[in-house]
Amino acid sequence: MDEALQQIAEAAARNWTMTLMCTVAMVYVVFSAVASMVKSSNREKTRREIAAYIAEGALTPEHGERLMKAGKSTHDA
């Protein structure tokens, strides 16, 4: 009887651990996706603002192009 209870307790502990690990993984994936969306949204907003400055004549197209290329990392495509 004690051995059966011990096996049940061990199985419950394994299931709890697996559930916790999966939850942590899912939270990481969600936060990574949100961070990526925010980064992409901010990048696009900046590109639109630079384009607006070029359109109103406050920036030259060459300067705008340099601004858009500035700060690109090796991870940006």
**H/E element order:** HH
Q: Determine the structural class based on helices, strands and strand pairing.
A: mainly alpha
Low-confidence stretches: none
- What does the largest sheet look like? none
Helix content: over 70%
Query: Total number of helical segments?
Result: 2
Rounded to an integer in angstroms, the radius of gyration calculated over CA atoms is 26 Å
The total of beta strands comes to: 0
Distance from first to last alpha carbon: 62 Å
Overall pLDDT level: 89
Tell me about this structure:
The termini are far apart. The protein is an all-alpha fold and 77 residues long. The protein is rod-shaped. It has helices at residues 2-56, 61-69. The chain contains two helices and no strands.
How would the blueprint of this fold be written?
Elements: H1 2-56, H2 61-69
Q: Which features characterize this protein?
A:
rod-shaped, mainly alpha, 77 residues
What would you say about this model in short?
By secondary structure, the protein is mainly alpha-helical. Helices cover 83% and strands 0% of the residues.
